[in-house]
Write a structure and sequence with these properties.
33% of the residues lie in helices and 26% in strands. It has 272 residues and is α/β, with parallel strands linked by helices. A hairpin with a 2-residue loop joins strand 9 and strand 10. Helix 3 crosses helix 4, helix 4 packs antiparallel against helix 5 and helix 5 packs parallel to helix 6.
Length: 272
């Protein structure tokens, strides 16, 4: 049975729907990447699935329960969320950030229990931020901050992790580091990973299934080798690309075709 079952989901903001009639089934322990150009609905889908938007229509079932009928605490026990990386506003220490993952399950007024402390320690170990636990967010690099927020989601102890552009604003070494951690959580902890992502080649290296959105609807879906084609990229992104097979992994890699540009390839304004 799918751990995340999305039926005819439409969602958006005050000015209408951004995604339209999306139906998807995510299996337990699966690593799925949601891809598409700016404004295609990636972030909107991630937010709608966890009931963060008021303007929704359709049904989302997580682990047998209707997401739109669950209490926040019940939902937090099933889905953990890592938002887009942003500059820190409050000067929390890393350990405090990770402990917030336990608040989502148990409430802000409850004192941390030994079980909470153990979950925080384990989350920091798995994301390799234990040595940073006393540092403030402003003292961390982008990659270190992203690992801290993944640790917070992991401390929440939910079976599903939703991430919105986890590689955004990170250099290539941190992108690989973050995705390596996510892959380890999938393989070693059985977590279901669903990530909105802009980097197709990066997503193909770690996710078993890619879902491409165009204009708020599913345009292509399947394994990287099935969905990453010059025709699909041209249709979905409006870009001419060269696709090569990675000699080590056998997975497809994308580069812009030499000398080829497209007016349609330019990002448009709008919500992602």
């Amino acid at each position: 049975m799918a751990i995340l079952d999305i039926k005819d989901l439409s969602a958006g903001y005050d000015d209408g729907f951004v995604i339209h009639d999306i139906s998807l089934a995510i299996e337990p322990g699966e690593f799925v990447a949601i891809l598409g150009r700016n404004g295609s609905g990636k972030s909107t889908l991630i937010k709608a699935v966890q009931n963060l938007l008021g303007n929704v229509r359709g049904r989302v079932v997580c682990d047998g329960d209707d997401v739109f009928r669950m209490s926040p605490r019940r939902l937090a026990a099933k889905i953990a969320y890592v938002p887009q990386l942003a500059e820190p506003i409050f000067e929390y220490a890393v350990e405090e950030i990770v402990l917030m993952g336990r608040f989502a399950r148990q409430g802000r007024l409850e004192k941390a229990s030994p079980a909470d402390s153990a979950a925080v320690d384990e989350a920091m170990r798995l994301t390799e931020v234990g040595s940073l636990k006393a540092k403030r967010l402003s003292q961390l690099s982008g990659g270190e901050r992203q690992r801290a927020f993944i640790a917070r989601a992991l401390a929440q102890d939910a079976p599903v992790l939703l991430l919105d552009e986890p590689s955004l604003h990170l250099d290539i070494s941190y992108q690989v580091e973050v995705y390596g951690i996510l892959k380890g959580l999938q393989k070693n902890k059985g977590k279901t990973i669903v990530a909105a992502e802009h980097n197709i080649t990066l997503a193909a290296a770690y996710a078993e299934r890619l879902i491409f959105l165009k204009s708020g609807a599913v345009a292509a879906e399947g394994a990287p080798g099935e969905t990453i084609s010059a025709a699909n990229i041209r249709e979905i992104f409006g870009a001419e690309v060269d696709i090569r097979e990675n000699i080590r992994t056998g997975l497809p890699e994308i580069s812009l075709a030499a000398g080829e540009t497209s007016q349609r390839a330019r990002p448009r304004d709008g919500r992602a």
